[in-house]
Amino acid sequence: MTPPRRRRRHPGKEYPPEPAAADGGQEQNPERLYILTGAGGGGERAPIDLVTLIVADGEPLPTVTPEQSALLRLCRTPLSVAEISAYLELPASVVTVLLTDLLAAGLVQARAPIVRQEMPDRSLLEAVMHGLQQL
Fold first, then answer.
1. Which residues of the chain have pLDDT under 70?
2. 25 within 8 A of 56, measured Cβ to Cβ
3. What is the mean pLDDT of the chain?
4. CATH number attached to the domain at 44-114
5. Is the pTM of this model over 0.90?
């Protein structure tokens, strides 16, 4: 989610180029990430991975951090942990710690993704399709 580029008021006038960040434009400040996860971030984490779907149960409470509040607003529809990490521009490990706190508070639900083995096999679907075509 990058903001749109501004148009120049004076097209003929040249401006110096903006300096590019060495890390691709993202802040990699370890102190900031430590503060986001809180001092208790070293405890037990919830068993979630990058493809686990997260859904918010309700509105953010006034006691949650701004990052958790943004996460709750973002998860009104199911999103994977990888998508949440990308939208919030935070590492997946930090998002996992934030989600662990929200899961413990009962503010979000974690749903396992659909496993490919649980889907019906192709031969069954083809048999149903041929039966419907013969009707």
1. 1-43, 45-46, 114-119
2. no
3. 76
4. 1.10.10.10
5. no
